TrEMBL record:
Function: Catalyzes the insertion of molybdate into adenylated molybdopterin with the concomitant release of AMP.
Cofactor or coenzyme needed: Mg(2+)
Pathway: Cofactor biosynthesis; molybdopterin biosynthesis
Family membership: Belongs to the MoeA family.
UniProt source species: Tessaracoccus oleiagri
Source taxonomy: Bacteria, Bacillati, Actinomycetota, Actinomycetes, Propionibacteriales
Gene Ontology MF terms in the entry: metal ion binding; molybdopterin molybdotransferase activity
Protein name in the entry: Molybdopterin molybdenumtransferase
Amino acid sequence: MGMAWFGRKKEAPLEVEEVEVAPSLPEPPPLNEAGLRSMQDHVDYLLGLVEPLNPFGMGLLEAWDQVLCEDLESLVDVPAHTTALVDGYAVRAADLVDEDNQRVESMQLFDGEGRIPVGAIKHVTVGEKLPPGATAVLPSTFIALEGELARVFETVTDGEYVRSAGEHLSAGEPLMRVGEVVGARHIGLLAGAGIDKVFVRPKPRVVVVGSGEGLVEPGRPVDADQTIDANSFLIAAAARAAGARVFHIVVGSNNHAELAQHVTDQLIRADLVISTTGGRREDYEAMVQTMSGIGLVDSAQVAMTPGRTQTFGLIGEDNIPMIMLPGNPVSAYVSFQAFGWPLIRKLAGADPQRKLHRGIARTGFRSLEGQTHLLRGIVTNESGINRVAQVSRQHALSELAEANVLIVLDEQTAQVRAGESVYYWKLDED
């Protein structure tokens, strides 16, 4: 009979109750002393929550304006064969001189097929393929025909008056690199190089949602308690300019159930959702609460002017990214340029970092240290110098329509004097 080790009885293992951890977004970046998140930290945080779309093969025409995901080389020589550059006679250049390197007096005309015989020439026209054995073309003015013979007045050397095979492109020659955007002229180049399909990332599908109680689309009758929706049209156009394939809806309500239904219905065709309102605070809060009910949400006060209040979420079963922009049209547009534009670029596999351009301030600008100010501006080129001025209009949409840049005053800048350097983003920049 066996004995238990040291006479102890085996104890049943304790059952550990598994605690289900609620899903959440990654830890957000730290706040500054004023309790605000820096604009760059917010950009980096959002970019860290999305990945580029998966690439796939497309025909050349469908691939226009999309980001390439492979290096491309020519599949063929262009031209494929050595051809005549002028009307004349195909010749083996070495046959035009004798053993003493003197020009021969005449050559035999050849009108047959196949390799050109030694001491013979064959008539060719511009663009015609040279017969085997020929190394050059004698222009018609270099000879005089005398029956079956051609009297030679001038000689040529190998390669003269011909377009060699692969002269324009040789098989294996690099054409485009990963990350380049396929343009119309690229498509011509690729087609000529024998390429019919390319591996690209598709344009990001962006659904722009305008929402709010009493919000109506342009062109419809407007009652006293209603507002024409300009913001979502503005953002939809800006998203298209950023390279997105845009879908646009307007929901004239701030009811949570209605908003949730409309937004979730759009997720099947969305890689990114961008929402804005007609400007009422309760409409903004209604959409934020709706986002919280269908996904994970990050709301932040960002150290920027305009557009301090920013909300982002991953919504639905597939965690589709969604941005809730402020309701003021200038704040909405500036926020899109600061955060929506980089997200669209990241999804497309393009560089999401905005390029800072430098100009000379036409007038002075004031800012508050600790915040990034994005001012509407206009840049004009005067004698090769980019002059930057602020645009200021009472009507916000008129101001945006006139601007062609956003002037960027970073957190360390309190003042820029006239004549000093100032930096800006170009609007609708490729």
